[in-house]
Amino acid sequence: MRRIWAQAIKEILQFRRDKLTVALAYFLPLLAMILYGYAIRLKSDDISIAVRNYDTGALSREYIADIVASQQLVLVKWKGNDVYGPLDKGVAKATVTIPPEFSRKIKAGLTAQVQVVIDATDVNNARVIQNALLSINNYFLQSQGLSRERSAIVTDLRIWFNPGAKESLYIAPGGLAVFLWIFPCLLSTLAMSREKEQGTILLLYASSLTSFELIAGKALAYLLIAITQATFLIGASTILFGLYFAGSWLAFLVVVLFYLICSTCFGLTAGTRANTQSAAVQIVSTVGFSATLLLSGFMYPLRNVEYPLSLISNILPPRYAIPAFRNFFVRGSDFISQTYLLAGLLILATALFLIPALTLRRMQIKG
Questions:
Q1: What is the per-residue burial (b if ≥16 Cβ within 10 Å, else e) of 212-221?
Q2: Residues 190/280, Cβ–Cβ less than 8 Å
Q3: What's the CATH class of domain 47-143?
Q4: What are the boundaries of each domain within the chain?
Q5: Which of 310, 319, 309 has its CA nearest to residue 340?
Q6: 94 in helix, strand or coil?
Q7: Which residues make Cβ contacts (< 8 Å) with residue 73, sequence separation at least 6?
Q8: pLDDT, tens digit only, all 367 positions of the chain
Q9: SS3 sequence, 277-308?
């Protein structure tokens, strides 16, 4: 144990002497957290829509006023002579054409058809526009007393866990999990690959340290650094995004500990496989960052990931950490409800520690 601790102290001292690495460890995660927390927005607002009114009645003007009053749609000037003109020119995401005698037909109890053409190059945006216009139609009919049908079911809707529907409470906890995966990975993989690139790892091969002691010493050093990173980022997120704990502190600390072990050990795995620092960074950025964004549930639900890519998400630690972080900061989960997430992180942490240790042992034998 003393040799493991001595190896860890040596790594921490090397880390402190490199000012650029210290900046990479703390200021880049903070900058990334600010960018993701304030730049990513899942709600669509200020969607441009063009309206052409061929009716002269008051109801058509009130219908347009309801569109303007919505918080999602913004009227823009109609450009072009046909119905596709604003879409072709890119000035609007949808066009609404109100036909002649719109007001007269509604007052007479007849059906008045309104033509809507939606740009569906962005499918999610198109769904938002469609749902917004359907809601505006229902509101218009009810406000004018034109809806004669009475619904047999009335829904009393209440938003739970996040009543204010703050997007920061969804983005920020997920962003914490993403950055506590990426940056500890980068630090440990640079430390490991630097030993191979500079040839100093040969001195370690010749020493009395076993591969398990070497990996354990490096993992312990960068785990301690990762804990300070986690404390720094969580504190900054509390100030910037108003995050606060709603769940069990003990369960959260255990999840963070297992997760940071996975992160540092994955970086050591990449460092043992790569011969240069640039190659190690490429492995971490491609396998770690890209896979995390797409297959961890950070941006969209995992059920939307198609088979067989959905199987890959089961071996990604962020897949277990992101829901855990959101549960602890928003839902208020206890220890028991997070057991399966803890078990997944524990299994992956054990595997990610053994892989670089066994790889390094084979290298020592060959050497």
A1: bbbbbbbbbb
A2: yes
A3: alpha beta
A4: 2-40+167-366, 47-143
A5: 319
A6: strand
A7: 47, 49, 67, 129, 132, 133, 136
A8: 778 888 788 888 888 888 888 887 899 899 989 888 887 777 777 889 999 999 888 888 898 888 888 778 888 888 777 778 888 888 888 999 998 888 888 888 788 888 899 988 877 788 888 888 888 888 888 877 776 555 555 566 677 787 777 778 888 899 999 999 999 999 999 888 887 777 776 666 666 677 788 888 889 999 999 999 999 999 999 999 888 888 788 888 999 999 999 999 999 998 888 888 888 888 888 877 888 888 888 877 788 788 888 888 888 999 999 989 988 888 887 777 778 888 999 999 999 999 888 887 776 555 5
A9: HHHHHHHHHHHHHHHHHHHCCCCCCHHHCCCC
Side-by-side strand order, sheet with 47-53: 73-76, 47-53, 94-98, 115-118
pTM of this prediction exceeds 0.85: no
Q: Are 96 and 67 in contact (CB under 8 A)?
A: yes
Q: Which two tokens stand for residue 349?
A: 């942490």
